[in-house]
């Protein structure tokens, strides 16, 4: 047998070396990548996270704006954003197109349902399918007009079955009341944040001033997917929750603001004035209950004509006219120099080479008393009075009343006005409101001293700012006393004299008499200055600064109407009264100020009753003339409203919270405010319909509340109640110390 001879195979050997080397290199590379986690200097984990890690945004809600009773003024609401897919790559089945196929038809239909979008503009967008760098676009949007689309419009467009038209859920700032303190509230719009995200940003008013507080912080969700974008099982899901913006509660009262808007709109339509301003304030605290102006706008549409984009009550100065005589009178009475029965020669008063005339072209009314002069709104009476008071003393009082300086109201861009005193004639004309300038809010602040027995209260519009996620009060604004420019007796005398301008035989304020309440106030007729100097001929700013009821003022209302188109023989006070009268009357009734009781206001002190027996305190409070309401089963008191030691007017409600199930009280004639207090403290489900006072309730009084079934309560407005001759029972008014 022949032995086989071994032959060395060089080809096989070389192949072994080659592939063995490749395997060794690959193995080494794998070990290196495994050990370092890097390839070509890049982190593989980061690249994997970028490829398979997904992130979605949780949109934060912008904070809400409420009135003082928790009624919504501004909030975010669900809306829709229009998107058009223009890339043909989106369509995988020609029978079911996923992109815009017929641009002309699509543009026509969209323009029909969204009037803000013009057909030619839509068509241009749909046909322009490339970016500026030449890369194809996948989708296009339509700016602000394509945002904030309502559910109704969205469904109508969807019914048209347009290929490539999609809607994305969006948030829109919503103002449910339309024209409603628009210059105060302002508005917010969607803005590009610069990084591809969209944010709602305040552009005017409180929306702008408190934009930081109202703006929330978006959250996000991070998760991992596979190559087909399916969520990987057991993958870690990280959620950063969104933080909604803070809520702002205003001092505004929605009902009173509605009274004001309605009255101003009627006068605007009837008299076509160049401008109007109006303010309603709580005389005891300085809270602004309503504020508006004309021309104005609807924050939903922001349409306006010949309108100033500023809050004229705060930011614009005016010559106040004869409303300033109120404070000239107060200065004289407080210094003991007011001579009501002394006489002077009316008509004309000479200051060096210049002549001051009374408003009847200088004819005057002969020799009359100073009291008659004030009732007739005589300019020369004020000129003579300045000499008696003393110029330096008079201007010191104007400084005490806050003129020529900011009130400090919690709003931006407040003007100060200018008190002219360089020349003798300027000092005289300031006594009757000509030359020197003030702001309407300064007049309101100064009037609080007249209404509030000498104590002047700083006006404010922010009640509190609250974190909605925790309920924590971040800012809590309280009434601030700005000093006491006059004595209490002085204030009472001024109110009596102001009331006589409505009742005196020749008083200038007869148009402002109310049937049920006694009003005190002063009319104003200010000449309108020219930009070049001097005054316009027969062009006036008519105004009235008033309070009511006289013996215990609750409200201050200021109204001005500029250059109204008066009817033949009509006085300028008429259009002013058509705003003032219904607003003051309806507001007093809304606040349940009983005309028969306001002259005798008895106050009762309450204490902190926590941990004491509810039944015993109930008897004690009832004996003092208050209305105690026990919430719960009785026994030990765990909470109360109002809190702490303070004074209440007889007839006021005091809520005492205890443990256990509550027995439902009779809500008849309860105000909305007291109803909301009871609802919050009892923690019950309650659906409230209407405004004003309670007219009916779905669950009978005396029923023990031990389930979560909602209680339906219906309210009627003051107008409805009074029309039906149903007079609401007095529940009393809380003094200025009460916390709301």
UniProtKB/TrEMBL annotation:
Gene3D superfamilies: 2.20.70.70, 3.30.70.2110, DD-peptidase/beta-lactamase superfamily (3.40.710.10), Penicillin-binding protein 2a (Domain 2) (3.90.1310.10). The keyword Membrane applies. It holds the Pfam family Transpeptidase. GO terms for molecular function: penicillin binding; serine-type D-Ala-D-Ala carboxypeptidase activity. The keyword Ribosomal protein does not apply. It is an enzyme of class 3 (hydrolase). One of its GO terms (biological process) is peptidoglycan biosynthetic process. Its EC number is 3.4.16.4. It catalyses: Preferential cleavage: (Ac)2-L-Lys-D-Ala-|-D-Ala. Also transpeptidation of peptidyl-alanyl moieties that are N-acyl substituents of D-alanine. Belongs to the transpeptidase family. This is serine-type D-Ala-D-Ala carboxypeptidase.
